[in-house]
C-alpha cells in the first residue's frame, strides 16, 4: 500500500506594502507599462503618499539615479495636513534612463522633539525625555553643532526648558536634515524615467512648403517649382523670427492618378502640382525626392544651411501612397483590395481622398514594418532627426511601439511628432508608446473656460506621458476664431501658444494674417496643399502688415525666460471677466541658471472684438511671493511697468495689445 502524501507545506506569503507604506508614486504612466517621460532641462514634480500607524513622525526622500549611476537624494516635503502627500522637485540634466525610488522612514529626532516640546515644559517624564534626546544625539556624526547641543542638554545647572532650547537651533537642524536620524527605513520599488534630449519637449516650429519658396509662374500659366536651393534662402528669415525647427510637408514624388486640383477639386490641370501627401510616382516612393525639388545633394545642402542658422529640419512621414507609387505594383498585398478588384482609397466620410491609398498592416505586417524601418533609417542617414508623422492614429499602435523602439535603440536623439487630431485615448496612447510630441486640441480651445481647462490638463494631468505642441494653424486648419477674429485673434493665439507650452508652431502665412477660408471648409482658400503660393514676407514687414515682429518678440521672450521652457509649472489664476484668461509660469532660482527666480504672468483678452476691463486675482504663493506683498511687473511687449499685488485692475484693448506678458520683479528680501 502506497504511503499517503504528507501535508503540503504552504508557501510563505510575502507582504507587499512595506513597513512604512509608500503608495501612488509620480511621475509614472498609467498602468506603468512604459517609463514616464521627461526632457533634458525639465524640472519634474515627484510625489508619493507616505503614512504609517500611530503618531510618530515620518520623513521621506527621493533617491534619483542618473544614467551614469550617480544617485542624488532630495528630501520630500509634506503637503496639506491630512493628505499624507509628500512632494519635491528635481531637474534632469542628461538623456537616458533614470531610476527613482522613494525612501520613507520613521523620523526619530522629529518624533522625540515633538514629544519633548510638549512633555518637558509640562514637567512630564523630563529625565526620560532628556536621556532619550542624548541617546539620539550620540547617533549623529561628531560636529561642533552636535557637541554644543549635547553639552547644553546634559547641563543639569540649566532648567529643563533651557536645556531643550539648546537643541532647537538652526545649526543642529541643518546637521540632522543632511543626515536624518531614521529607523524602519523602507524603499519603494524602482521606477524608470525616459529622459530625452531637449528638442523632444522644447522648440519653436515653423512649417513651409519648399516648392513654394522661390516658385515662379511663367507667362503661359505653368510654374517653375521652388527647390531646396531656393527654399534655403528662406531659412535665415525664419531663424531671425526665433524659430528653431522647420517642418516640411512630404518631399517625395507626387502621383498623377486622381491628382487633386486647386481647392481640393477632382480636375487637376497639367500645371497643378498636386498634394504632397499623394506620395509616389514613376520617380519613386518614400525614399525618393521629388525631382522638381532637387536631388539628395540639394537636400543635404538645405540641411546644412538650416544647421548654420540653428534650425533642425523635420520631414513628414506619411504612410500612404498615390495609386502610382511603386508599392502598388510591387506589393499589392500592402493595400486593401475590394471585391471588385480595385484598391480602396482613403476616406474619412464625407471626406474622400481618391489620390491616396492607405496601407493595410494586417496583410503583411512583417514586410511592411521592415520596409518602413528601412525608409526611416535612410532619412536618418542623410541627416534627418525629426519626423512629423501624418495620421499615426490610422495605423496600429503595436507598430508604432515597435518602430519607435527600434529607432531609439540606435538613435535616441530622433524625435517623432504625432499629427493625431483624434480621440483622447488614442492621442494619449501614441504618446505612451513613444511619440515625443503631438498636435493638440489647443487649436479648438478658444474661450476662457476652454483654455483654463486645457492648460491645466496638459500641464498637470497628462504631462507624465503627453507632450503638447501648440500649433496655432496648419494647412488643414483655419479655425473660425482666426477667420473672424482679425489681427487681434492672431496675436492672442500666438501669445498663448508661445507661453503656454514649451513647444509651439505656426504654418507659414500666419504672419501675413491669411484668414479667408474655402467655403464649407475649415482651411484656407487657394490652399497650398494643392498649388504653389508665392508670398512677399519682406514687403509685408516693411509696410507694417506682418505679424513677424510680434512672433520674433514672442520667441525672444521664450529664449530669455527659462520658466517658459517648462510644461508642468503652469498655474491658472482668476479674473472677474469671462474673456480674460490668466496664468503664470514660475521657475525657482535653483533651476534657472541665473541665480534668480523667473516668473511670467500672462493675461489675455480672448475676445478679439472687444476692450475689456476687469480685476485679476493672483495666488502669489504660486510664484514665491507672500500674500499681501506688492511687486513690480513689466509688460515684455510694451515695456510698461505696474505695481501689482493679489488683486489688480487690467484693461486690455484687443485692437492694440490684447495680451499682457508680464515679468515679475521680486521685492528685495523676498
From TrEMBL:
<comment type="similarity">
    <text>Belongs to the glycosyl hydrolase 13 family. GlgE subfamily.</text>
</comment>
<feature type="domain" description="Glycosyl hydrolase family 13 catalytic">
    <location>
        <begin position="203"/>
        <end position="539"/>
    </location>
</feature>
<feature type="binding site">
    <location>
        <begin position="529"/>
        <end position="530"/>
    </location>
    <ligand>
        <name>alpha-maltose 1-phosphate</name>
    </ligand>
</feature>
<keyword id="KW-0119">Carbohydrate metabolism</keyword>
<dbReference type="InterPro" id="IPR006047">
    <property type="entry name" value="GH13_cat_dom"/>
</dbReference>
<comment type="subunit">
    <text>Homodimer.</text>
</comment>
<feature type="active site" description="Nucleophile">
    <location>
        <position position="390"/>
    </location>
</feature>
<dbReference type="InterPro" id="IPR013783">
    <property type="entry name" value="Ig-like_fold"/>
</dbReference>
<dbReference type="GO" id="GO:0030979">
    <property type="term" value="P:alpha-glucan biosynthetic process"/>
</dbReference>
<dbReference type="InterPro" id="IPR049171">
    <property type="entry name" value="GLGE_C"/>
</dbReference>
<feature type="site" description="Transition state stabilizer">
    <location>
        <position position="476"/>
    </location>
</feature>
<feature type="binding site">
    <location>
        <position position="320"/>
    </location>
    <ligand>
        <name>alpha-maltose 1-phosphate</name>
    </ligand>
</feature>
<keyword id="KW-0328">Glycosyltransferase</keyword>
<dbReference type="InterPro" id="IPR021828">
    <property type="entry name" value="GlgE_dom_N/S"/>
</dbReference>
<dbReference type="Pfam" id="PF11896">
    <property type="entry name" value="GlgE_dom_N_S"/>
</dbReference>
<keyword id="KW-0808">Transferase</keyword>
<protein>
    <recommendedName>
        <fullName>Alpha-1,4-glucan:maltose-1-phosphate maltosyltransferase</fullName>
        <ecNumber>2.4.99.16</ecNumber>
    </recommendedName>
</protein>
<feature type="binding site">
    <location>
        <position position="260"/>
    </location>
    <ligand>
        <name>alpha-maltose 1-phosphate</name>
    </ligand>
</feature>
<dbReference type="GO" id="GO:0016758">
    <property type="term" value="F:hexosyltransferase activity"/>
</dbReference>
<dbReference type="InterPro" id="IPR013780">
    <property type="entry name" value="Glyco_hydro_b"/>
</dbReference>
<feature type="binding site">
    <location>
        <position position="391"/>
    </location>
    <ligand>
        <name>alpha-maltose 1-phosphate</name>
    </ligand>
</feature>
<feature type="active site" description="Proton donor">
    <location>
        <position position="419"/>
    </location>
</feature>
<dbReference type="InterPro" id="IPR026585">
    <property type="entry name" value="GlgE"/>
</dbReference>
<dbReference type="InterPro" id="IPR017853">
    <property type="entry name" value="GH"/>
</dbReference>
<dbReference type="GO" id="GO:0004553">
    <property type="term" value="F:hydrolase activity, hydrolyzing O-glycosyl compounds"/>
</dbReference>
<dbReference type="Pfam" id="PF21702">
    <property type="entry name" value="GLGE_C"/>
</dbReference>
<comment type="function">
    <text>Maltosyltransferase that uses maltose 1-phosphate (M1P) as the sugar donor to elongate linear or branched alpha-(1-&gt;4)-glucans. Is involved in a branched alpha-glucan biosynthetic pathway from trehalose, together with TreS, Mak and GlgB.</text>
</comment>
<feature type="binding site">
    <location>
        <position position="355"/>
    </location>
    <ligand>
        <name>alpha-maltose 1-phosphate</name>
    </ligand>
</feature>
Amino acid at each position: 500500500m502506497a504511503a499517503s502524501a504528507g501535508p503540503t507545506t504552504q508557501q510563505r506569503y510575502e507582504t507587499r506594502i512595506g513597513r512604512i507604506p509608500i503608495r501612488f508614486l509620480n511621475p509614472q504612466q498609467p498602468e506603468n507599462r512604459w517609463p514616464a517621460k521627461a526632457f533634458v532641462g525639465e524640472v519634474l514634480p515627484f510625489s508619493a503618499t507616505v503614512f504609517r500607524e500611530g503618531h510618530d513622525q515620518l520623513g521621506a526622500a527621493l533617491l534619483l539615479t542618473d544614467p551614469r549611476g550617480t544617485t542624488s537624494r532630495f528630501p520630500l516635503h509634506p503637503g496639506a495636513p491630512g493628505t499624507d502627500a509628500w512632494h519635491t522637485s528635481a531637474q534632469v540634466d542628461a538623456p537616458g534612463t533614470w531610476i527613482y525610488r522613494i525612501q520613507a522612514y520613521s523620523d526619530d529626532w522629529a518624533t522625540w522633539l515633538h514629544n519633548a516640546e510638549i512633555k518637558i515644559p509640562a514637567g512630564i517624564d523630563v529625565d526620560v525625555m532628556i536621556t532619550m534626546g542624548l541617546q539620539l544625539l550620540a547617533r549623529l556624526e561628531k560636529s561642533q553643532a552636535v557637541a554644543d547641543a549635547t553639552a547644553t542638554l546634559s547641563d543639569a545647572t540649566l532648567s529643563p526648558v533651557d536645556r531643550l532650547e539648546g537643541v532647537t537651533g538652526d545649526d543642529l537642524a541643518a546637521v540632522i536634515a543632511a543626515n536624518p536620524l531614521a529607523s524602519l527605513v523602507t524603499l519603494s520599488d524602482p521606477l524608470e524615467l525616459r529622459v530625452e534630449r531637449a528638442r523632444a519637449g522644447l522648440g519653436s516650429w515653423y512649417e513651409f512648403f519648399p516648392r513654394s519658396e522661390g516658385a515662379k509662374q511663367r507667362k503661359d500659366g505653368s510654374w517653375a517649382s521652388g527647390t531646396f536651393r531656393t527654399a534655403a534662402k528662406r531659412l535665415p528669415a525664419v531663424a531671425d523670427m526665433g524659430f528653431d525647427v522647420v517642418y516640411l510637408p512630404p518631399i517625395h514624388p507626387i502621383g498623377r492618378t486622381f491628382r487633386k486640383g486647386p481647392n481640393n477639386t477632382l480636375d487637376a490641370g497639367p500645371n497643378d502640382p498636386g498634394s504632397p501627401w499623394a506620395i509616389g510616382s514613376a520617380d519613386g516612393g518614400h525614399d525618393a525626392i521629388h525631382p522638381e525639388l532637387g536631388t539628395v545633394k540639394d537636400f543635404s545642402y538645405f540641411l546644412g544651411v538650416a544647421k548654420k542658422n540653428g534650425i533642425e529640419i523635420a520631414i513628414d512621414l506619411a504612410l500612404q501612397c498615390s495609386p502610382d507609387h511603386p508599392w502598388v505594383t510591387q506589393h499589392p498585398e500592402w493595400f486593401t483590395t475590394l471585391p471588385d478588384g480595385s484598391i480602396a482609397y482613403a476616406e474619412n466620410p464625407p471626406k474622400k481622398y481618391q489620390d491616396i491609398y492607405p496601407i493595410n498592416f494586417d496583410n503583411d505586417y512583417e514586410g511592411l514594418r521592415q520596409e518602413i524601418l528601412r525608409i526611416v533609417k535612410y532619412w536618418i542617414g542623410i541627416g534627418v532627426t525629426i519626423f512629423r508623422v501624418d495620421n499615426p492614429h490610422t495605423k496600429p499602435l503595436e507598430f508604432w511601439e515597435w518602430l519607435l523602439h527600434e529607432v531609439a535603440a540606435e538613435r535616441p536623439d530622433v524625435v517623432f511628432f504625432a499629427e493625431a487630431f483624434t480621440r483622447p485615448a488614442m492621442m494619449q496612447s501614441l504618446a505612451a508608446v513613444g511619440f515625443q510630441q503631438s498636435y493638440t486640441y489647443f487649436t479648438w480651445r478658444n474661450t476662457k473656460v476652454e483654455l483654463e481647462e486645457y492648460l491645466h490638463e496638459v500641464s498637470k494631468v497628462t504631462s507624465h506621458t503627453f507632450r503638447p505642441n501648440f500649433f496655432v494653424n496648419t494647412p488643414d486648419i483655419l479655425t473660425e476664431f482666426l477667420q473672424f477674429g482679425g489681427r487681434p485673434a492672431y496675436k492672442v493665439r500666438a501669445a498663448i501658444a508661445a507661453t503656454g507650452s514649451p513647444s509651439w508652431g505656426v504654418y507659414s502665412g500666419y504672419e501675413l494674417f491669411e484668414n479667408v477660408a474655402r467655403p464649407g471648409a475649415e482651411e484656407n482658400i487657394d490652399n497650398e496643399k494643392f498649388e504653389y503660393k508665392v508670398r512677399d514676407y519682406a514687403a509685408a514687414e516693411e509696410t507694417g502688415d506682418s505679424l513677424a515682429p510680434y512672433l520674433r518678440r514672442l520667441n525672444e521672450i521664450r529664449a530669455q525666460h527659462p520658466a517658459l521652457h517648462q510644461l508642468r509649472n503652469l498655474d491658472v489664476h482668476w479674473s472677474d471677466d469671462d474673456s480674460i484668461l490668466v496664468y503664470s509660469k514660475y521657475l525657482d532660482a535653483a533651476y534657472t541658471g541665473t541665480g534668480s527666480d523667473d516668473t511670467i504672468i500672462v493675461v489675455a483678452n480672448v475676445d478679439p472684438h472687444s476692450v475689456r476691463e476687469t480685476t485679476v486675482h493672483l495666488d502669489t504663493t504660486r510664484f514665491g511671493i507672500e500674500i499681501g506683498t506688492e511687486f513690480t511687473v513689466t509688460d515684455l511687449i510694451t515695456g510698461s511697468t505696474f505695481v501689482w499685488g493679489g488683486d489688480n485692475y487690467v484693461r486690455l484693448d484687443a485692437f492694440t495689445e490684447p495680451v499682457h506678458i508680464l515679468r515679475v520683479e521680486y521685492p528685495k528680501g523676498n
